[in-house]
Design brief:
It contains twelve helices and nine strands. The two termini are 23 Å apart. With 328 residues, it is an alpha/beta fold. Helix 6 packs parallel to helix 7. The chain has a single domain, classed as Aldolase class I (TIM Barrel), CATH 3.20.20.70. The longest helix is centred in the middle third of the chain and has 18 residues. The relative contact order is 0.16. Strands 1, 2, 3, 4, 5, 6, 7, 8 and 9 form a nine-stranded parallel beta sheet that branches.
Amino acid sequence: MRRRTITFSRNIFLPLTTVCRNRCGYCCFRTPVQDGCLMAQSVAERTIRQGAALGCTEALFTFGERPDLEPGFDAHLRKAGYSHFLDYLHALCQYSIGCGVLPHTNAGILTYDEMQRLREVNASMGIMLETTADLPAHRNSPGKQPEARIAMIEDAGKLRIPFTTGLLVGIGENKTDREESLATIRGLHRRYGHIQEVIIQNFCPKPGTPMAGSPEPAKEEVCATIRLAREVLPRTIAIQIPPNLIDAQELIPCGVDDLGGVSPLTIDYVNPDHPWPEIDRLRDLIGNADLKERLCIYPRFIRLGWYHPRLQPLINRLAHTLELRKHP
């Protein structure tokens, strides 16, 4: 019998701002304008250089959704020399490409035109669907309206952007909601063929948030959701779990294909109390499966040419590097 292969991406996590228009009941990432502000460009560029030196192939750019809608944020942006936040993001993506690291942006809700522009400097993009259910956890979060997220995922398909999405398990949804969410993702992929991975992420309560006292989903519930995802979704879509949030060793047999981005340099700023496993120890988590490092754009999308021409030299070079690199 052929051994299973479990993949991962060696990345750096760049939270460009923690200012956000949403007020999710489980989030500890968001901060007020006076606290969040901007990651200094010099700090971001230094982090990218350090990541490149450590062999990272993915720069994960993430930030609060529509920070420019929060009063006072634009003043910080102008002080940094930018009139629009996506101009700042675009500049850093270009810098990352120059350093030999492929950008992947997860920015919350973006318009078609914004994604079209960012496609020039991103090998892939993503947004968590989380759920199609209307939940109290998202009551004060306009960007978490399911129809807005579904529309963005559809626009990404129209633009041929290799895309990541996923479910957040344990925020008040039920099994029927999860099945509906997965069916929605499947329908979008059938129309456009652009979903490369679906994350099954477990809710982790954060101190100081409205949902701090809510229970974490049991491992059995997460496993059942992974199995459901494997039944509902095409085999070409990888099922991913975050190995810093739950016992990956127990969940791999449930149908996991991928461990997502793991950083040798930066923390998980969305879940700062959950450190990444060391890359050298990932093999210990996957049992008798083979471990394979991947890029943030999956091989089939490279073969299809689903990237901007300016990215081709770097994609080809990094793909060749991974073929030569010895995996842990």
